[in-house]
Structures are given as structure tokens and as C-alpha cells.
């Protein structure tokens, strides 16, 4: 079963995509996350019924043509996929990892590269008893300032912005650099 946190993170990613699409259309949206909800009601009802997680208003007086970077992020939405069998595994260059960290920070998320010891501990905990083919991986962790529903929405937006930034530079397209 999917937890309220996972639903909110997914909704946050979708909200980022909507904001990006509006920016490509030349509009700057105003976004209010969790309008009219207290913390408890979202946790209690997310997934059980329809809950308004954000209100997005397209501001008619805020017209701005998209930058090349915004257009490239939007185009990356259609290229990104997550089937690991389709990737050529190559290490990501440090400048790309820094770009992804910066993208997450723009959405109030904190992305960091995990130290090899942390990676091994996570892989051991994840696998427990199974076998892992020897592959070079770069694991990263995404966090927010707190663990409340608003932070979950921010995490989804930060995750999507970081992943699209990586895709923009051919990270997670089938011909890209890594998974």
C-alpha cells in the first residue's frame, strides 16, 4: 500500500510539471500549497479521498517568455524514464551532480551525494539476503527541512526538478549517461 508521504511526493512532482508547463506557455503561476488544510487532515485523508493539495492561479498580468533552460527542462519531461535496463552505465560528472543539487535547492529540497560507506549500508539494508550484480552506482539522498505534508510536496517538486535537470543533460534518457 502507498503511504500518504509517497502520494504527496508524487503529487509534488506533478505540481512541478504543471508549473513548468505554465512557464513554457509564457505564464508565471502563483501556487498555494495545502490551501485550507491543517496537517492532520491531509495525513488522515490523503489517498482515501480527493484532497486539494495545491491551488494554482495563472496570473494574466505575468507574461514572460520561457528561457532556454526552462524549455529544455520541459522537453526533458518527455524523455525521462526509469527502466534501468535501458541505460548505459557511466559515472555522472561532478558538475552535473552539482546542477542537480542546485535544482533541488530551488524547490527547498536538499540533495547530496552519499559517501561510499553510506551507499554500502543502504544497499545492504535494501538487499538483505539477495544478490546484487557488481555495478558502479552513485546514490544520492534528498531531504527537506522537516517531515510534514508541506515538506513532502516540496520533496516531490525538488526530486522532479533534479531528475529533469539530469535528463536535460542526457542522464536518464535511453542514450544517456547513467540511471
Report on the structure:
The chain is α+β, with helices and mostly antiparallel strands. It contains 6 helices and 4 strands, in the order αβαβααβαβα. The two termini are 26 Å apart. A two-stranded antiparallel sheet has the order 1-2. The protein is globular and about 55 Å long. The model is unreliable at 173-179 (pLDDT under 50).
Write the layout of secondary structure elements.
Blueprint: H1 4-24, E1 27-33, H2 39-45, E2 54-63, H3 68-77, H4 94-106, E3 110-113, H5 116-127, E4 140-143, H6 149-168
Antiparallel strand pairs: 1-2, 3-4
Q: Any descriptors?
A:
179 residues; alpha+beta; two-stranded antiparallel ribbon; 4 strands; 46% helix; disordered C terminus
